[in-house]
Amino acid sequence: MRRREVLAGLAAAGVVGGGAVIARRNALGGGTDPAIRRREVETIDAPGSDPGTVQIPDPDRPTVLKFFATWCTVCQSMMEPTGEVYDRLGEAVRFLSVTNEPVGDTVTRADVATWWDKHDGRWTVGLDRGLELTEALDASEVPYTFVVDSEGIVQWADSGYKSADELSAAITAAVEG
Predict the structure, then answer these.
(1) Helix H segments across the chain?
(2) What are phi and psi of 9, to 5 degrees?
(3) Is this structure's pTM higher than 0.85?
(4) Assuming Cys at both sites, which of 51, 57, 61, 167 could form a disulfide with 45, CB separation 3.0 to 4.6 Å?
C-alpha cells in the first residue's frame, strides 16, 4: 500500500471518529438542544429520600444524576465517595441516584431502600422503571454519572469508579463551566 493511501485511510478514520464524537456530544446535550426534557422521577422512601417525585432537571440548580444497580459492586464502592461529595456541596447541587433495575420484578422498593441504607445513602434515590431516563441519556452501564444543568444540558458524563476528589473536580468544573 502506498503512503498516500495509508494517509487517506487515516484521515477518513479521523473524520468518521470525529463525527461520532460530535454526534455523541450532541446526543448528551453538548449541542444547543436540551439533552433531556423535564420529567418527573419517582423517588422512594429511604435514608435521605422521601417517597414521591422530583423534577429532572432541577429548574433551580444543577443535578448530579447517578445511575446504579444494587447488584453492582462498583456502584457499591461509589457510595462512599459520592457521599463525601454530597456532604461538601450541600444544597448547591441536587444529588439524585436512580436505579434502572426492574423494580417490582427482580428487586423491590424495599430491596433498594435496604441496599441504600446499608451503603450509607443519604440523598434522593429514585426509580427509572420505564427506562426513559436511561434511554434519553444512553446510560448503557452502571455506575454512570451525569451533571445536568437546569436547562437539561449534560455538562459532564462518565462511567465507572470515581474517587471523591475526581467526582468533586468534575462536578465543580461542569457547574462553573
Answers:
(1) 3-28, 73-89, 109-118, 132-137, 164-176
(2) -65, -40
(3) no
(4) 51
What is the DSSP-derived secondary structure letter of residue 91? G
For 149-176, write each residue's pLDDT tens digit.
Answer: 999 999 999 999 999 999 999 999 998 8
**13, 33, 112, 164 from 142: Cα distances, Å:** 29, 25, 15, 17
Q: Any idea of the CA torsion for 157, 36, 142, 24, to the nearest 10 degrees?
A: -50
Question: Which residues are 109's β-sheet partners?
Answer: none
Per residue in 22-79, pLDDT tens?
Answer: 334 334 444 444 468 999 999 999 999 999 999 999 999 999 999 999 999 999 999 9
- For residues 113 and 99, what is the distance between their CA atoms, to the nearest angstrom? 11
C-alpha cell at 61: 440548580
Name the residue with cell 427506562: 131
Helix, strand, or coil (residue 162): coil
CA of 20: how far to CAs of 24, 59, 88, in Å?
6, 30, 36
Output DSSP code: residue 106. T
- Distance CA(146)–CA(119), nearest Å, equals 21
